[in-house]
Amino acid sequence: MIKKIAIPTTNGKLSSHFGHCEKFAIYQVENNEIIKDELITPPPHEPGSHPAFLRELGCSTIIAGGMGSRAQNLFAENEIEVFIGVSSISLKDLVKTYLENKLESGNNLCDH
User: Fold this and answer.
1) Is residue 1 helix, strand or coil?
2) Domains of the chain
3) Do 4 and 25 form a contact (C-beta atoms < 8 A)?
């Protein structure tokens, strides 16, 4: 089964606020191996737009620095697993840590 993991990025690094990111790094994973990665520009940020956008892309997980509580609820409604407040290691290492079941949410880096 192929799984898609989204990571919001700014300047090629983990964005501290997913809604203000420049692009989403989308990683496709099969059998716990990354088989494809791509950068996708999101639509203009409107409340609630990004969870629906990522769901349409088939993403089932988002790894973010931070996001507001409304966004977290919208991701839950779209059946997308959320990790926030993760450390800013390389994007690929974030995915590998997730695949090893070692990724944990930390302090939300978003102030709303």
Assistant:
1) coil
2) 2-88 (3.30.420.130)
3) no
Contact in structure between 39 and 24 (CB atoms under 8 Å): yes
Q: Residue 48 and residue 20: Cα distance in Å, rounded?
A: 13
Say if residues 64 and 82 touch (Cβ distance below 8 Å): yes
* Count of CA atoms in the C-beta half-sphere (13 A) of 74: 16
pTM, rounded to two decimals:
0.92
Give CA–CA dist 46/12, Å, rounded: 22
Both tokens of residue 99?
């695949």
CA distance 34 to 21: 22
Local structure of 15: helix, strand or coil: coil
Contact in structure between 4 and 58 (CB atoms under 8 Å): yes
Residues in the chain: 112
8-37, pLDDT tens digit by residue? 999 989 988 888 889 999 999 999 999 999
Tokens standing for residue 80: 């997308």
